[in-house]
Design a protein that fits this description.
The protein has helices spanning 7-18, 29-40, 82-94, 102-116, 118-130; strands spanning 50-54, 63-67, 70-75. Strand 2 and strand 3 form a beta hairpin. The chain is mainly α. The chain has one domain (7-130): Zincin-like, CATH 3.30.2010. It is globular, with a radius of gyration of 14 Å. The chain is 41% helix and 10% strand.
Length: 157
């Protein structure tokens, strides 16, 4: 058994939750940094600052990692969207050692709520439950839900 046994199941559930939604719309790096900053400055956020940067040229996937004493999210060129930012910020909230387990899944739902609102959080939670994936109890403060969409149907960041 690997350290991250649920990874493929989480990715499949995430795809079913966000495919075809505005969460997959390409954003600028500045838009994604602004969204991340809004989350990390919220009173409920327990982790501290999270740096958001572009991944190196040629990188095919995004990731969260510890760098210079803090968490850094690196976003690959083909993954500059809210769905990916939410996923990587969930790693920051749950802790990188949580991999894609039940605590990560709780964090993923909560970051979706904080980033774009209860509707998107509901999509993610429903997808995890439909895939029979456990969701941990929250061990951080209840996040403040963002809300709304703009006149074009895109989630407001």
């Amino acid at each position: 058994m690997s350290r991250d046994d649920a990874r493929s199941e989480v990715y499949a559930a995430e795809l079913s939750a966000t495919a075809g939604t505005s969460l997959e719309a390409t954003c600028t790096l500045d838009e994604l940094r602004t969204a991340a900053t809004r989350i990390t400055l919220s009173p409920w956020w327990p982790v501290g600052d999270v740096a958001v940067a572009a991944a190196r040229a040629g990188a095919h996937s995004s990731r969260a990692r510890y760098r210079e004493g803090r968490i850094e999210v690196r976003l690959a060129a083909g993954q500059m969207d809210m769905a990916t930012l939410i996923h990587e910020m969930a790693h920051a909230l749950a802790g990188l050692d949580a991999a894609h387990g039940a605590l990560f899944r709780r964090a993923h739902i909560d970051i979706a709520s904080a980033a774009v609102g209860a509707q998107a959080a509901g999509w993610v939670e429903h997808a995890y439950r439909a895939a029979h994936l456990d969701i941990a109890e929250r061990c951080w403060p209840q996040p403040t839900a963002a809300g709304g969409r703009d006149e074009h149907g895109r989630f407001i960041m």
